Amino acid sequence: MGVASVIGIAALAAGTVCLTAGCSTLGYYAQAAGGHFSLLNKARPVPEWLADEKTAAPLKERLALSQRMRDFAVSELKLPDNASYRRYADLGRNAAVYNVVAAPELSLTLKTWCFPVVGCVGYRGYYDKADADSLAAELRSQGFEAVVQAIPAYSTLGKVPGDYFSDPLLNTFLRWQEGDLARLIFHELAHQVVYAKGDTMFNESFATAVERLGGERWMQQHASPTAREELARADQRRIDFRRLAMQARADLEAIYRDDTLSLDAKRAAKAERFARLRAEHAALRAGPWQGWTGYDNWFATANNASLGVMAAYNELVPQFERLYEREGRDFERFYAEVRRLAALPQAERRATLAR
Fold it and tell me: How confident is the model over 86-98, as pLDDT tens digits?
């Protein structure tokens, strides 16, 4: 699904702090707040789009589908019933925000940035890609490996009251295939249910678990056989992708932690492992994927930062799925238990979830 972002709520929360106490990153928060308000100002309630004769028929169909998914999120998945994803905005670009992710040359540990309300996260988001590219270049000059990721959606965590501040549907994801659209809506709404400050892996793995569980239920109950087949093919490619990426991540982590290797030996082993990763992708593309090129850019630019961020979205998902089963496949009970875990200190939270 890509990296989610909490840039909007971070900017809004931090603005007063910077203005009253002085802040070396005032410019960053200003662009974040300005970009967020620009996005919100473009949003109109879905009923207005549907009633507007100028709205193209395909857009009306997708908006109507999104609202059925939004209703399903409330009735079946017990996700928040509010104004989020009840409005739509066309941003005129292919991303809601651009995230910069960075890691050292011989480590998969992401560089973090800390913000009020949300705590520390392993990315820094910008609404202007040029700003994101500039930071990535600066980090590379400092010895980091960095990537700029185009993010289709982000959550403000439901922290700011009022319909105007609710998260809207965006052109950056509305036309995705049915299963992926449903999953994204469920994922972002899950962030409003539980958010553990400063624990990106816990938060994103939980939201990913909700998107998978909810998406499966939606597809079984509402999707056509064609849509289910389309999603199954995409999911198989995702499984293949995660298998390659996570194995490379594990191998590189072992290389970086091996104290018997010199720095030059680690660099050589790293280069060989990334070359093998790209060769494995090429074999998949030529074979089972039948020429499908959707992951080409990711593999071409893959580095420590790319692999480092993978864990946040996947590592704890099986544990959350087991917890859901333990709670009788009841979403309300599941959420209550996750909230209890989120209130614990991070080490205790992880240990309890693992058990």
Answer: 999 999 999 999 9
